[in-house]
Request: fold
Amino acid sequence: MKDAPMQASQIEIVPFGPDHLEAAVALSRQAGWPHRTEDWQLALALSDGMVAVEDGKVVGTVLVTPYKEDCATINMVIVDETMRGRGLGRKLMDAALLIAGDRPLRLVATTAGLPLYQKLGFHETGTVAQHQGLAGDIAASAETQAATDADLPAIVALDRLAFGADREGLLSYFAGIGAFAVIRRDGHVSGFACLRPFGRGEVIGPVVAADLGQARKLIEHFIARRPGRFLRVDTTDETGLSPWLAEQGLAHVGGGITMKKPLVRDTADPTATTFALASQALG
Reply:
């Protein structure tokens, strides 16, 4: 008589804690993602999450990153490749939806994950283009300058206009591990960019600016200071930034599908646009 197949009900869904980080790094590597332990620590510090455990082994993860009560992103949804087809992704998403509560939700989907998210009521809103490569040797714009600690409130306010939610906690965390550049007009911060360690090198994002030209100058600020270093920028197709990034040696290597639940009118201010994401996970 053949043994009965294992059922998904034998898998326990438990809160994601620091003791799960090592296993989470292993799962992200299995998925081909570049996240280091420090990147997972950042995500967990800003998020609540759950892990799926079978026989003491972590076989799935999900994080929910809230931006106060404005919205939340669901991210780091990973299922061990040996466990797929058992409904585990759905169980993790159900747990994430409970954590998120009534907040509007955002996520970036892979093609494989798209059918599940659609079943859960998420709607496609656009496409992310991931660019990365070794920084070229270019000149920095004379219009940009390093931000000071006193600029953080203005950066948070500008990001709120562009993103449509208050990400003070995220940006304060980034200020502690990375650097910001700003452009000022009439004495006020009108655009900013952040550079921080991530994955194989560093990521530039978020980048918020009044227009495409300003966004390029902010990105140039950091490219010019990192010749030969590995940089990554995640943008969206509608910004028009992608072709210029490729010209700077940051090749288009993939991306994802942006989704929202519910599909509501964008509340972002048209005078400030997000040209590069903080990350695909964090929005």
